[in-house]
Amino acid sequence: MQAASLVLHGGEIPTYLDQLLLTYAQEMPEVQKVGGMLISTVIYEGRADLFYGITDEVKDIKPKWILDGSWFEGPDSVILGYELARDFHKKPGDTILIGSLNREFVSAVPSERTAPKTMVSIFCPWRPPRRYSRGPGN
Asked: Read out DSSP for 76-109?
């Protein structure tokens, strides 16, 4: 609950696993599937945008996550959570302006409701939240 509260209030969780651990886990013969996820929150105009930077392996870990549209076709692709897409009236292939990043993206959408915590999330290729951030040097 502490982590969720921190994220909802725009804070970043200060501890994370080193990215090298993902590679290490992927090379372990007893591990069947491993995917990486970087969670980032940006507060913009009174709303929290919750981003999940995910690796391609996540689609294998979530086999029931059927998309309308394509998996990431490039750095300007996002997968919108089911309810987020519905609230913004977005269909697969539509562009969406994500104000907190001041950029437009092409969307894909899960074809059905997924876990409640992901229905209002924005999924993007691994690392984009940092690359797209509005911080110094960007």
From this structure: TEEEE-HHHHHHTT--TT-EEEETTTTEEEEEEE
CB-count burial class (<10 Å; 0-12, 13-18, 19+) for 7: middle
Q: Which residues contact 89 (CB under 8 A, 6 or more apart)?
A: none
| pLDDT mean over 31-50 | 83
Q: What is the mean pLDDT of residues 86-95?
A: 89
Measured torsion, CA atoms of residues 89, 92, 95, 97, in degrees rounded to the nearest 10: 60
For the segment 8-29, what is each residue's pLDDT rounded down to a tens digit?
Answer: 666 665 556 667 778 888 889 9
CA distances in angstroms from 117 to 4, 51, 73, 86, 127, listed in the order given? 10, 11, 24, 15, 20
